[in-house]
Structure formats: structure tokens, C-alpha cells
Amino acid sequence: DAGITQSPRHKVTETGTPVTLRCHQTENHRYMYWYRQDPGHGLRLIHYSYGVKDTDKGEVSDGYSVSRSKTEDFLLTLESATSSQTSVYFCAISARTRGGNEQFFGPGTRLTVL
Amino acid sequence: AQSVTQPDIHITVSEGASLELRCNYSYGATPYLFWYVQSPGQGLQLLLKYFSGDTLVQGIKGFEAEFKRSQSSFNLRKPSVHWSDAAEYFCAVGGRDDKIIFGKGTRLHILP
């Protein structure tokens, strides 16, 4: 357990509404990530952050924005949700362990866009 | 391009039988390799990892994996599966840039 929480854990929303998902960590890790998980696609990186106010795009960033104003919080925003953004969203942190870096994951947020 | 291929979408084995899940990767530098497991409705749990050194790595729950550089593979094995091993398994590859790429997963079914 790397002290990662996600909120909300479940959300149902309508097409066109804005949605913000929150990831909170308690261990001061520098790197944080947002992934989406869809059947047949595994996990795909949306955005990541390498420090406060330092973020970059991942593989599937269109339609998403992120912000990191504090080390412990990494927010994912869908400015205008679409049905194609129905997915399970996972936050992760990267921690240095013996020999290399490994990622630890939060419990996930299930988002349904109607 | 960096990628991970898990050629088997579904695998079914009988309880007590041996298991091997295949993973092939494409990566430009020396890779870090991972296997994660996800039970239904749960997050991802790290089973084992390879950074360097001994190419046979041991993980949790009795799993092991072998890194074969010549074959660009990192196959996961278990000598005797239990019903509780039914889950989805993800292979992943990364490096010093702190980003990792996941395969599409293999769902393991266990027959009683």
C-alpha cells in the first residue's frame, strides 16, 4: 500500500458535463500518473506529472487535462465528458526501490458517461 | 517503438496444473520488466519485477518469471495454480524515464 486514494470511486455523469477525478498520495512521491483501463486495451497512459506544475501528455491525452498544484494531489479533468470516456481510471505513483523504479496503483475510479 | 505483446487473451488451466503466461516486449534500452495481477473489481498488484542481475526472478504467491534477452521475453510461470489465481495478468516494460507500457492482459480461468 503506497498511500494512494482516489475520489470518487464511482461516478455517473451525462455527456457534455465537466468531471474532475482526484488522486491523493501521502508519501511525497515526485512522479504521478493517470491511466485508463478498457477491455482489450490494458492500461493506457493519459497524463503524468514529474513535479508540482510539471505535467506531460501520455498516449491517450485528447479530451483530458491535469493539474498538480501540490505534491500530494493530481487532478484529472474531463472538460466535456463523452461516452467514449466511460472507463476505469487508475492513478499511480512511481517509487524508487532497490534496483529501479516501480509503480504502485490506487484503487481506481469507475466513470460512466451517459 | 516500445511495446508489449501478450499473445494469449484468455488461458484456461485446471487447478493444480502448471501455468505459463507469455510476454514479449520491444524496448530500445535495457528494460525494466513487470508482471501485475488484477482480481475482478480490484486495482493492480505487483507480482514481480526485473531490473537487472539474475534473469530468473521470484515473486509473490509462488510466481516466477524468466527474462530472456535473446527472445525479448519475460514469461510468467507457476508450478501449480490455485483457484484463487483466477485473475487478469498484465506484463509491462519500462526504463529509467519512469514511464511503463502495459500489455493488453491475459485473463486466467481455473477449472476445478
Report on this model:
The complex is a heterodimer of chains A (114) and B (112). Chain A is mainly β and 114 residues long. Helices cover 0% and strands 63% of the residues of chain A. In chain A, strands 2, 4, 5, 6, 9, 10 and 11 form a 7-stranded mixed β-sheet that branches. Chain A has a 4-stranded antiparallel β-sheet with strand order 1-3-8-7, with no helix packed on it. In chain A, β5 and β6 form a beta hairpin. Chain A is globular. The mean pLDDT of chain A is 94. By secondary structure, chain B is an all-beta fold. Helices cover 0% and strands 52% of the residues of chain B. Chain B has strands at 3-5, 10-14, 19-21, 24-26, 32-38, 45-50, 56-58, 64-68, 73-78, 87-94, 100-102, 106-111. In chain B, strands 2, 5, 6, 10, 11 and 12 form a 6-stranded mixed β-sheet that branches. Chain B is globular and about 40 Å long. The mean pLDDT of chain B is 93. The A-B interface holds A 31, 33, 35, 40-45, 48, 50, 58, 90, 94, 97-108 and B 9, 32, 34, 42-44, 46, 49, 51-53, 90, 94, 96, 98-105.
Sequence-ordered SSE layout with sheet pairings:
The complex is a heterodimer of chains A (114) and B (112).
Chain A: E1 4-7, E2 10-13, E3 19-25, E4 31-38, E5 42-51, E6 54-57, E7 64-70, E8 73-78, E9 87-97, E10 100-105, E11 109-113
Parallel strand pairs in A: 2-11
Antiparallel strand pairs in A: 1-3, 3-8, 4-5, 4-9, 5-6, 7-8, 9-10, 9-11
Chain B: E1 3-5, E2 10-14, E3 19-21, E4 24-26, E5 32-38, E6 45-50, E7 56-58, E8 64-68, E9 73-78, E10 87-94, E11 100-102, E12 106-111
Parallel strand pairs in B: 2-12
Antiparallel strand pairs in B: 1-4, 3-9, 5-6, 5-10, 7-8, 8-9, 10-11, 10-12
